[in-house]
Amino acid sequence: MPTLPPRDDAGISQPPRRMVDMSEDECWRLLQSCDVGRLAWVSAGRPVVVPVNFRVVNRQIVIRISPYSLQGREIEDSRIAFEADQIDSHQRTGWSVLLRGHAAFDYRRDTGVGPEPWPEGHRPLHVLLSPSSVTGRRLL
Prior knowledge:
This protein is mainly β. Helix content is 9%, strand content 49%.
């Protein structure tokens, strides 16, 4: 049976899309264009994924957390994954970047440095996510 082209909400045919791998430089450039991503780690043998505000600084991801939060209790000196993306569901295009690496607390940073967290509350602890791998794909 032939495959029908995808259709948008109005029933209009959309051209087929293809996935392309992105260079590491393009991944970093796209990460600098957004400010919310997802931090992932394993807790008690189970995956945990939470949205976080972030900033790119010297090819590291910087987030701010409360030292008493789940992240503050569990991710120091841990393996992590971090993902950010931008999707246009109407055009059916977008990109996704995945970092795998290590989380370390940075106790030397001033309180005002780093991303401005959206939720209220005190988040003085800066976390540096240092990637061992950076991969990305774009849907064209």
